[in-house]
Amino acid sequence: MSSSANISHHDVETLASLIASQPESIEILPGDASAWVPPDSEHHPYLLVEGNLGVPQKELYKVYVQAVSVFARARRSDAVKALYSCTGAGSRSTSSSAITPPSQRDTTLAAFDAQDPSIRTLIAASTILALANPAHQTALSARRRLISSGLIDARSELWFTRAVLLCARHCAKEAGLWFHRRWVLARVHGCDFGEDGARSEKMGTMEMADVKRELEMAGRACEVYPRNYFAWMHRVVCVRLVLSSLRAGSEHAGGGRGVEFVQGEMRDVRAWIDVHVGDYSAVHHLVSVLRAILLDEGFDAGAVEVGKRELEMAVEHSGGLVRAYPGHEALWMYVRAVYALALEVDMSPGSLEDATVDLLASSGDHSEETAWNAGQFGKWKEVFVRKGGSGIMP
Amino acid sequence: MADSHLLIDKHVQYIQNLGNSKDDLSYHMTAHLRMNAIYWGLTALCIMGHKEALDREEMIEYVMSCWDDEAGAFGAHPDHDAHILSTLSAIQILVTHDALDRIDVDRVTKFILSLQQPSGVFAGDMWGEIDTRFSYIAVNALSLLGRLSELDVEKTVSYIRQCRNYDGGFGNTAGAESHSGQVFVCVAALAILDRLDEIDQPSLCWWLSERQLPNGGLNGRPEKLEDVCYSFWVLSALSTLGKLSWIDSDKLTKFILSAQDTDRGGIADRPGDEPDVFHIHFGIAGLSLLGYPGLVDLDPVYCMPAPIIEKMGLRKGWKALPRRTLGV
């Protein structure tokens, strides 16, 4: 019995150490090792090529089943029980924004031994559970406890979450994993994403370069899993962090860089829409950011001017796209959203009006989808624009 | 694969067989949502009129084995941390089995209320992930426990209001894209709190009606694929707002039935895919709201058998399609 327990332990630790060496990327390969990995290769059944780690899916799942019992066993150990009682509800460790200086840290946390076998297996097992099944809340929570007590380095967790998010479709879309990344980001950068609405006196922020890295990552995650809801949510949370610095009276106000950032983001999202013409998530993001700047309170006049300029560009952009690809519902909804926003801020929808009038007139010559989209747009205009049938419309 | 009627016996058998595959990989990979899965299976059985197909005592024992005494709430599986998702499913299972007396209501109430954030949204657990789903879960759970009066309603509603988008839909957090699942939770939460006035009904119902695709199925967002689970989420919101007629119910019924696995039982997200208990539950729930013959009424706000919710005095003003009789 004990030898099989050692074997399962070993498999979990082997894969976990390969991951801990921080390869360039992790990829989950379909099938088993026989399809990918020569039997005599160094890291069999895994593949390590130029720093890129390939894990055959069937091998990963074998180790996963072992990791489940290893994790459960580690949870029952005294060392881990002590860790859990120091990092429980009500302790400072749960709040991501509580960056506690070493002198104030609970001294019992400092006493945890990273070499304790149960702590090591908790780390290794949770690594496997999180990689194969990032929806496993309990595994991610265990890692947060380990990070709180310095037993897992927060920066290396940033590396790990990025690697997992980008390694497979089911990982890229996992809500809990995106939240986990933001929890870690907040600790590493000393910032507060403000998601809970708490009025922190000192609402820290991330460096622009770090924010841009998050936006780039969200974009990559959308390539892995199109229309990725939680990647776009992550993106808007990060953008809002920067927007807060555009508000008059913000201690981070330094208008110029914030404005540049917004213009850059709008440009990037328009470019994304150009090559993903059915991607309404991108449209929503663009319109959301514009609406925040133009309609929310507290933005200075300079920011609002930039917002109006960006709206004009969105008017041109949406009109051009819907003429080119009238079969795409997302583009008609882009037109609707921009049209409605223009009216709300007393701007004329101008060229949008022309584009849609032309399309409505010629819709019979187009595909069924175009005819449907044009018809819906016409009805929408009747109900929501002319007759003011909506509470949101003026 | 498709059939023109609901294969109740096959689906009942599929659900009964779920517990038999404890050695399968898929069993391990879904441990983190086991409590939810049991609630989905049980509710589907109830709506199909076969509540007795799973053992009551065994189920209650399982629920209680997931009690996290440190947190005062339920995890999804023994040794899994407490979370609001599994806590609601546990409550719903016990309510369905008339065993709510097994819960320490004070402690569970305390757990739920402790998760409300300054902005009014609820977190899923002590770590702070927020989502309007969790707001709905808190409202639903407190309502079933008879403790809704302890909720700060204004605060809860104010966050949901911030999640209302320009298209009338709702996202999971302020600024997030409208999504049928998030629309369901926001509308249902507002229904329980008697605050449907917060909804821009013309825009939202318009948006919901646009979820129906030419094949009759419903999607979650523009230009996404149809999926059986949206049959519930979209229908629930329309039924709560009294606009079920804005969807072509014949086409949707045919779509749901075409997603059945006629050999092994079960319903998938769309025709030809692997079935699972999640899609059986939401497919059956959708069919019930559409008036499919032979099914028990489903309360679209609580997503539980309507007779149970009515008996508790919690029924809100929703309208399903009239139940058709067999052979019509």
From TrEMBL, chain A:
Keyword RNA-binding: no
Family stated for the protein in its record: Belongs to the protein prenyltransferase subunit alpha family.
UniProt source species: Coniophora puteana (strain RWD-64-598)
UniProt keyword terms in alphabetical order: Prenyltransferase, Repeat, Transferase
Any single Gene Ontology cellular-component annotation: cytoplasm
Keyword Transferase listed: yes
InterPro entries xref list: Prenyl_trans_a
Gene3D superfamilies: Protein prenylyltransferase
Pfam families: PPTA (PF01239)
Molecular function as annotated in GO: protein prenyltransferase activity
Record-annotated membrane-spanning stretches: none
The name this protein goes by in its record: Protein prenylyltransferase
UniProtKB/TrEMBL annotation, chain B:
Transmembrane segments: none
A Gene Ontology BP annotation from the UniProt entry: protein localization to membrane
GO cellular component terms attached to this protein's record: Rab-protein geranylgeranyltransferase complex
Keyword Zinc attributed: yes
All residue ranges annotated as the Prenyltransferase alpha-alpha toroid domain in the record: 6-304
Cofactor binding notes: Binds 1 zinc ion per subunit.
Entry keyword set: Metal-binding, Prenyltransferase, Repeat, Transferase, Zinc
GO molecular function annotations of the record: metal ion binding; Rab geranylgeranyltransferase activity
Entry-linked InterPro entries: PGGT1B-like (IPR045089), Prenyltrans (IPR001330), Ptb1 (IPR026873), Terpenoid_cyclase/PrenylTrfase (IPR008930)
Cofactor: Zn(2+)
E.C. number: 2.5.1.60
A Pfam family: Prenyltrans
Subunit-level organization: Heterodimer of an alpha and a beta subunit.
Similarity-based family: Belongs to the protein prenyltransferase subunit beta family.
Role according to the record: Catalyzes the transfer of a geranylgeranyl moiety from geranylgeranyl diphosphate to both cysteines of proteins with the C-terminal sequence -XXCC, -XCXC and -CCXX.
Record-given protein name: Geranylgeranyl transferase type-2 subunit beta
Species whose genome carries this gene: Coniophora puteana (strain RWD-64-598)
